[in-house]
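Exercise (ungraded).
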Amino acid sequence: MTVTESKTTTFVGTSVKRKEDASLLRGRATWVDNIAPPGTVHMAVVRSPYAHAHITRVSTDVARAAEGVVAVLDGAELAEDWQGSLPCAWPVTEDIKIPPHFPLATGETRFQGDGVAVVLAESRALAKDAAELVEVEYEQLPAVAHVDKALEKGAPIVHSDLGTNECYVWKLETDDFQAALEAADVVVTRRYVQPRLIPNAMEPRAVVAQAGPGGELTVWSATQVPHILRFALQLVLGIPESKIRVIAPDVGGGFGSKLNVYAEEALAAALARRLGRPVKWTEERAENYVATIHGRDVVHEFTLAATKDGKITAVKSDAKCAMGAYLQLVTPGIPLLGAWIYNGAYDIPNYSVTFTGVFTNTTPTDAYRGAGRPEATYVIERTIEALAEELGMDSLELRRKNFISEFPATLASGLTIDAGDFHAALDKLLELLDLDSIRADQKARREHGDVKQLGVGFSTYTEMCGLAPSRILGAVRFAVGGWDSATIRMQPLGSVQVVTGTSPHGQSHETTWAQIVADQLGVDVDVVEVLHGDTAVSQLGMDTYGSRSLAVGGVALWHASQKIIGKAREIVSHQLEVSPDDLEFANGSFSVKGSPDRTMSIQEIAFQAHAAHNLPDGLEPGLEATAVYDPPNFSWPSGAHAAIVEVDTETGDTRLVRYVAVDDVGVPVNPEIIDGQVHGGIAQAISAALYEEGIYDEDGNLLTTTMTNYLVPSAAELPSFETDRIETSSPTNPLGVKGVGETGTIAATPAVINAVVDALSHLGVSDIQLPATPERVWRAIEEAKS
Amino acid sequence: MRHVALTVNGSRHELELEPRELLVYVLRERLGLTGTTIGCDTSSCGACTVLVGGESVKSCTMLGVQADGLEITTIEGLASNGQLHAVQQAFHEHHALQCGYCTPGMVLAAVSLIEEGKATSESAIREGLEGNLCRCTGYHNIVRAVSAAAAGVS
Ligand code: FES
Ligand code: FES
């Protein structure tokens, strides 16, 4: 059969207004916290106030007797409910240490916030009141909160039976690396501390679980990963997946923090099963700070080696990565998401990357927007500046000299970038920037010795996203595949249902998926309805994270569309009695080549397919198709960003003057939605550069426990952004798309810090630790003076 | 329990409330008005913003009993005759929401800012919305939407 060509591209590439807005703007969204089936009991979790302690006694009698209390249970009492531990899906090495991790601690607590007991009561308030009445006696144990300390001899051990805090060592090194390093003219090594970031999705987590008498289980969860959660609940609870339905209704942001399988989800499900009543838990923000995963917390030692004329010959990264107290769903794998791109946008032939995963008595780390790639991009984009300084070269010239410029490009790390144009992105950025006048202003301020100094910082990046080719995932020991699915169902009267395996929580799939399908089938975007986030509706899916939805799930839509068109062609061919090869499909209609008046619209065919009065022999009625798409490669967005900052040299205060981003996300589906994703990512990354830091004291007490002492930026802290694009189509998929969810968080943090350092370089400042708070900036200036 | 009468989106409600019940829970759990969301426990995020007597108030900072006799507008009551309010419309047109969790509070804070005549410039809007956090949009499009609505309304 010939490949169907649908030439009409009406919606893709245009900023169709979002379908999602209708309910969200009117307050008609369905958040999990809105849900309470009749008979719901409310759960509160009693949490350890200590980072590390023996639980010597849990007494629940007083709590049990309190008003409205239905049950109080501790970890020992619930032990029999667990078929398995909360899963870690990415055991990155063969000898990785995976400590058991049950929803409630028994014997020992290992981070502040570790669950010790649960209280179930008739209302949220009564559950909370009674939780205060659970008396837990602890014997405090020595704790360790920071990776450097945790690897020292004699450090407190988080899991004493392991005898070490080292979780794993993972290494990737090319053959001639060592020789190349030794042969280099110039070698620059820098150390970087990337602090903990607390994701702070605006909707806290929430779960409602309902168990039926036949052993069936329905779980509503504020999750990014309903399909993965269903799978994991079988492992933890022993209920077959076929009996489990997970629903992620409207979900209020995730940024990786809801890409997980959490203790409270398992607890609610187990307790619903025990009690025969629906169980509900809604996280409070204070709990969110300790009970939801954190991001980053990595210490790098990073080296670039080069010839004296500026050709980079080798890159070496050695990172200690905090795991926290337990391994959550993909905790150990987060560094690996950056493992193959420590060369950044540059062609560097010799490559060495080592990660040491380290247990500490802290909240587990896991995916936070960008996951692994912001870490890698930060160290290369900071160090390229240091290398330029060392070589006495302009850093943009150094970048250009080393840019990967021919595609497809196979990296020293082994992966292949399918398409990009790094020079073009930088060219466009410079066009938008007017660098000469910025440099003139900077020069004048320096000459006058102004209090407020100006700095400009760059970041050129590429990232691997679109998780992911299943074979590669298998090769790096990830437990499951990276495909996704789409089902397209033409209803008899011509409307279209699309079922996707992706699970949006702000990404606008209801709109953009409809755009893609509408173009392929030649129908109006308004007749396409996208269903998602319910495993009873969408049986097959790998959910939403890692900028994967468009490059995997979106491409599955294309494949399913071709199947629909293929089947439609058979029906038309039969009914019009022409060869399938003599049919053309365009604008939602088949016509016979050479006799354009003989046509059949896709809606007409849908009706014929359902009526089934006159179908070819053996053809099934209905016009529905499912495609499962496994990408052959990752996708590779790239771009060039610049930040311009004004730094007050007396107070250390940094103000962002401009932020300019040029990204290459492949073929744009909805430019306005792309811009929105870029804005949000940039904002989070600027905030990581200037404001956000989750701080633990030496004893493992989290000091940043609320939005009042962990600064989530408001509109007042941020500027407007200037965004633009270049476009290189991805040859890996028929839509040419790459994904956009993480570009901003990957690119922006180094751009901002490079700008702050640039503003102060004439004062002798060469680095500032993240985040560049006024105090840190002020200290850096003072230290440079002395 | 205290007897309280309050008017929400034009409907009068008589309720027996516990003195400690926060207005946001009264709206969400007693009246089923779940458009108002909760994002924090430190009055930091503004997700719960509603209009009380026309002015924006974080409904997690107010007790239900304090609302006795007052007129409240929540996001559910902002559109009239099926027509979105100008601020809602502007949020739609400028893609000022992604996950939408902050949106009800953000929209109502913006309505009040515009009505007070304070949405006069980009920086005034940014300062004026300081009490409302959004983690998705980076605020860029929110500021554009509020500027547009302010220009249209005034
Ligand atoms: S919930 Fe009211 S300010 Fe956050
Ligand atoms: S749109 Fe998600 S928090 Fe604002």
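Further reading is listed at the end of the chapter. For now, observe: The helical segments of chain B are 23-30, 86-93, 103-115, 122-128, 140-153. DSSP finds five helices and five strands in chain B.
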